[in-house]
Amino acid sequence: MITINETPIRTARNFNINNIKIDELNIKKEILPFNSFKINSEISVLEDVSNSNLTYGLGHELEQQVKENSNKKIKLIIDKDYTEPIELEFLLNKNNPCLIENIEIIVEENRKANVIIKYKTEEDLEFYHNGIIKVISKENSLLNISVVNLLNTKTNNFICIENLESDNANINYTIIDLGGKNSITNYYSNLKGAYSENKLNTIYLGNENQVFDLNYIGDLEGEKTNIDIDVQGALKDTSKKNFKGTINFKKGSKKAKGNENEFCTLLSDKARSIALPMLLCSEEDVEGNHSTATGKVDDNQLFYIMSRGFEYKEAMKLIVKARFNKILENIKNEKLKNEIIYEIDSRLD
Amino acid sequence: MSKSNIEEINRNIYDFKNKDEYDFKIKKGLTPEIIEEISNQKNDPDWMREFRLKALETYNKLELPTWGPDLSELNMDEIATYVRPKTSLNNSWDDVPDDIKDTFDKLGIPEAEKTSLAGVGAQYDSEVVYHSMKEDLIKQGVIYTDMETAVREYPEMVKEHFMKCVPVNDHKFVALHGAVWSGGSFVYVPKGIKVEVPLQSYFRLNSPESGQFEHTLIIVDEGASLHFIEGCSAPKYNKVNLHAGCVELYVKDNAYLRYSTIENWSKNMLNLNTKKAIVGKNAKMEWVSGSFGSKISMLYPMSILNGENAKTEFTGISFAGKGQNLDNGFKVVHNAPNTSSLVNAKSISKNGGICTYRSLVRVNEIAKNSKCSVSCESLMLDDISRSDTIPTADVRTDEVEFSHEAKIGKISDKTIFYLMSRGLTEEDAKAMIVRGFAYPISKELPVEYAAEMNNLINLELEGSIG
């Protein structure tokens, strides 16, 4: 077993949340070329990614695998405003069973763009994904970025996201996390620049025996920086979710704000939800809030919807999806949005 | 409310020290021979001697925590784990030696006994020097005595409960406690008896480079109720002192227990205390905790809700000043249907102090229809301090309502402006806001302890704001 996705600060070992242990066999050793990639934009796809060290990352082994053995390197430089979303699609299938990608996106000063990155599996077979997405946002830039995981539930999914933001930079991240046998995410934002902002909205939906391990970390370093994390999820069957969210007000982050909200709907009495929403603070003049809630679908809401003629399952799906809707609005591609809704529907059945 | 009122409080009531005089002080360190010697000195029965030696083995096997404050300055080779004061147990203050009696007089214990308590225990270093309880409670069958007497006189009851709620392998400092424990209080409240007036035990550690390891065992039998108050303090020395007490509380079906603590150890103390309650059907356990002293504190009282409809509440405040690292919190395990827990934790950090709220809520699969609500608030009084909130929630059933919310921030400028527009100085306005912030905790304490807590807050704030 190896230990990955460590929290920035440890708590008691028997709380079972400091990290996650996975079988080493889950990390693929045999790496084949990956040729099932599409991009819809004319933007130049470069390959000279910087390969700099990650601040946190999932762990040495997974990070090194991407740096040394990635079978897809993508560097995008946003040096003009893009009105249409730039869409990257990775389709894992029998001929492309292993994706190890290293993506770097540099958003130049005053530039705006929307980027959508989609991971999907074609067959219901065991594939492998391990990737890094690094964003460097320069002064006054705006990036809306969505990462959509539509992998099957046999595939291990490891993903590491890192954002570095300069003054007045703004990154709005949306993560749709539906697939993966083990779906392990490390998300780190460094708001170094004054007035920089980061929003992160996540949807996760666990069924069968899926395991989600979400480790989200926001360092606020610049003055008047702002981070807002909203995570909405539901767990079916024997699925399990660990949510670890850290907002760290570092010295110098005067008048910074940080909010973190996690809501988990339990749809089975065998599902398990662990949450560790941390607020760390070394600066006086800041505002930090977090809230987390776990529970089943509200009986009154169910009763109301069922009294309007819906069956139990439909009513339950409506309530769960209602919590996801606001986040789904961030997906700026109707076709993809409908594909996600269809996937959510079928996984809730 | 003027500044002069704040200045009137004299911290010397906690920091004064008596000469390090004792009847017996064990040599420093931790070996089987030292444990045997403690056992000899205490005239332990065989089962307790064996228990201590096994606990030492466990201590040697367990690791230091890999989380929380740095404990590397703790060197057990420099700590004397047993110091017997130059007096035996008394039930009259007149029989307590003058310097020790003066100590408790200055802390206000005999006076409180007269006015507002039903019984008092006072421990000085490793042994209880005074124990007394009102006659009517004795007649009702209430037992309130020191732990050593309980081991001798109520062996069956002690054997059945001693370190069963807090097992010796819980963590390293519990194992240490099991090996060297001395003193503490034993309380038994028989079925249906309501103890209307609180009992209080006060723990004073006078001896330098030593430890206090008192054991508190309270059994509130079915339908009974009790309010127990624990106070602790010590004078400040240059070297580290250690407190690793253990509190085991059994709240049987339909019973009620409130356990209040005002902890004001000196700022060279490592306070590595363990407190746990097992709560029965329809029973209620309330914790009220004010944590002001200690250099390092790692204290997480715990309620295990084992009976259907069991309830628990935790109301606590930590106040960390210069050189202090207070890592406190609460743990609850919902282990039966329809159980509920309510947590209200506050912390204030100033002058470089570190406050951490660390907690665990676990709702087991069996705990259908349970409810848990947690609220934490942290106040930062300057930009050289630190405040962290590290709560864990582990929910294993869908039939549950769990919510947690936390806030961190400074005193609102608008509120200060409002109060100043009503004639207060900025310093008084801030002090008033801090007292208001602590009010939900102070209102839960008996009035004289609430006053003590407010005095402590005033003391801590003095000169630190404005």
How are the SSEs ordered, and which strands pair?
The complex is a heterodimer of chains A (349) and B (466).
Chain A: E1 2-4, E2 20-22, E3 37-39, H1 60-69, E4 72-78, E5 86-92, E6 98-107, E7 112-121, E8 128-137, E9 142-150, E10 156-165, E11 170-177, E12 182-191, E13 197-206, E14 211-220, E15 226-235, E16 240-249, E17 257-266, E18 272-281, E19 287-295, H2 299-307, H3 312-328, H4 334-348
Parallel strand pairs in A: 4-6, 5-7, 6-8, 7-9, 8-10, 9-11, 10-12, 11-13, 12-14, 13-15, 14-16, 15-17, 16-18, 17-19
Antiparallel strand pairs in A: 1-2, 3-5
Helix pairs in contact in A: 2-3
Chain B: H1 3-8, H2 12-15, E1 24-25, H3 32-41, H4 46-61, E2 83-84, H5 98-106, H6 109-116, E3 119-124, E4 127-133, H7 135-139, E5 143-146, H8 147-153, H9 155-161, H10 172-180, E6 185-189, E7 199-204, E8 211-212, E9 215-220, E10 225-233, E11 241-243, E12 246-251, E13 256-264, E14 269-271, E15 274-279, E16 284-291, E17 296-299, E18 302-305, E19 311-320, E20 325-334, E21 340-349, E22 354-363, E23 370-380, E24 386-395, E25 400-409, H11 413-421, H12 426-442, H13 447-461
Parallel strand pairs in B: 3-7, 6-9, 7-10, 8-11, 9-12, 10-13, 11-14, 12-15, 13-16, 14-17, 15-18, 16-19, 17-20, 18-20, 19-21, 20-22, 21-23, 22-24, 23-25
Antiparallel strand pairs in B: 1-2, 3-4, 5-6
